[in-house]
Amino acid sequence: MKKLIFIHSLSSGGAERVAVHLAEHWYQCGHQVIVVTVADTEHDFYTLSAGIHRFCLNSAVPSQNSIRGFINNYQRINLLRKILRKEQPDIAISLMSRANIILSISALGLKSLVTIGSERIYPPKLPLGKYWEILRNKMYGHLTAVVAQTQESTQWLKQHTQAKTVVTIPNFVVWPLPETDHLIKPESIGVPHYKRILAVGRLVEQKGFALLIDVFCRLAEVFPEWELVILGEGPLREQLTEQINQSNCKHRIFLPGSVGNVGQWYEHADIYVMSSLFEGFPNTLIEAMSYGVPVISFDCDTGPRDIIRHNEDGLLVPVGSTAELFKSLQLLMLSTTKRTHFSRRAITVRQSYSPDNVINQWQQLIDGLIKTKKNLIC
């Protein structure tokens, strides 16, 4: 079976990681796999096996105005359509909202092609803008199916788009995580015997890192042998760095950037905190749990409450509540017993969200859609 995956880029990020993991899994299972990105390879953080065919549309240029934006997307649609017609995959999968819309338009009239869009975040938390929202509503009806990561997202898509088939499939967790370039040793920063709070994600407003830094600084005086590390890169680096420099604990908070050996960082973490204000289905949360890291997460829309069993394998905190985050962090920082309790139970995600389990759900969806499509054509 020939499968095509379409995504904006292979830069560091959750959706990009899922795209690479799906591509690699199917390639190792003997499928022909094609990965198409809008951006070129200069933007890559993840690498692909040599046998996976890669096409770059090389059209990841900023749109200065609506006319330029229309032209850019028109070109992307034409380029992707040419690839679909030439390569003739059995199935094409896109990840993230705009990519889903572009795939849907590009595949119009290609009756034998099964197309699956994949929403990676809870849609109402990240509106696309008026015209993209109109297109999402309309064009999702031309996709064979749409995959959401949680039941909440599934219900939203059923109510607010014309999608004919919407299926819930969570992310899978890879354990241990493979290493890529951009290696930074966890031991290279901080004080060796200090305990470590870890967070991972893009340095953007959504991730709530400013709140986390504020809470940590309030705890720092009481817990002098703890430090905070936030892995990731993004537009808020300068702002967060300034916040850290103005704090009373600037020598105990670190922003190493994006790393290709995040698994090692989980191994060196004593607590993992996800301070996101909204999510789709957070990869880093299940990754941290798979490494046995005790976790605390805002109970945001969506994903954390699907993953964490509160007070059994982690703690859920009302979203945005720095007071409750303070209390939960204090509880775990004080109690080695509590951290050990959560750690032992957290690793069950390795089985419940294993690649075999989750990709089997993808394959069942794909097989069913292809069978239905063939019956309709006949």
Main pleated sheet: 7 strands, parallel
Biggest β-sheet: strands ordered side by side in the sheet: 3-2-1-4-5-6-7
User: Using only CA atoms, what is the Rg?
Assistant: 21 Å
Helix content: 40-55%
Keywords:
14 helices; Rossmann fold; alpha/beta; 378 residues; six-stranded parallel β-sheet
Explain what the structure shows:
This protein is an alpha/beta fold. Strand 5, helix 4 and strand 6 form a beta-alpha-beta unit. It is globular and about 65 Å long. The protein has helices at residues 14-28, 66-87, 97-106, 130-139, 151-160, 209-220, 237-245, 262-267, 283-290, 304-307, 322-334, 336-346, 349-352, 355-377, and strands at residues 2-7, 32-37, 53-56, 91-95, 114-118, 145-148, 166-168, 195-200, 226-231, 253-257, 271-274, 295-298, 315-317. The chain folds into two domains: 2-172 and 354-372, Rossmann fold (3-Layer(aba) Sandwich); 186-352, Rossmann fold (3-Layer(aba) Sandwich). Helix 2 (66-87) packs across helix 3 (97-106) and helix 6 packs across helix 11 (322-334).
